[in-house]
Design a protein that fits this description.
- This protein is an alpha+beta fold and about 120 residues long.
- The chain is built from two helices and eight strands, in the order E-H-E-E-E-E-H-E-E-E.
- The longest helix is centred in the first third of the chain and has 12 residues.
- It is globular, with a radius of gyration of 15 Å.
Length: about 120
């Protein structure tokens, strides 16, 4: 399973958007209905996937009690099986699975070291 996405939580999302776009030149696309900002660190194709091999894009959202620090997201073939394995090996689910439009299913988990990471399963 591969790292496919990152997320940056922020207390002031507009301030964070301004910082990252000015410092790193990242392109930002707000998705108001999700209260989320898509972050493009590189150019994307017509399916919004990075054109450059070996790089990832990410997102930005309001910091919550569950998601306080940056998150890396891991793509899995079956999110239900991944969540079971996480629990089997001492991790816990901190935000149960939810659909992200027609693109995929996401969830957040805590590893054995108390780090919060994301899971992603493509729907297509």
């Amino acid at each position: 399973d591969k790292v496919v996405h990152f997320e940056i939580p922020a207390d002031d999302v507009a301030r964070a958007e301004n910082f990252y776009s000015k410092v790193f030149g990242w392109k930002l696309n707000k998705v108001p209905e999700m209260q989320y900002t898509i972050v493009h660190t590189v150019e994307v194709d017509d399916k919004y996937m990075p054109k450059e091999v070996g790089v990832i894009n990410g997102g930005m959202m309001k910091r919550t009690n569950e998601i306080k620090n940056p998150v890396i997201t891991i793509n899995v073939a079956n999110i239900d099986k991944a969540m079971e394995k996480i629990k089997e090996h001492g991790g816990k689910i901190v935000k149960n699975k939810f659909e992200v439009g027609d693109m995929g299913i996401a969830a957040y988990f805590q590893d054995t070291e108390k780090n919060i990471l994301g899971l992603w399963q493509n729907l297509k």
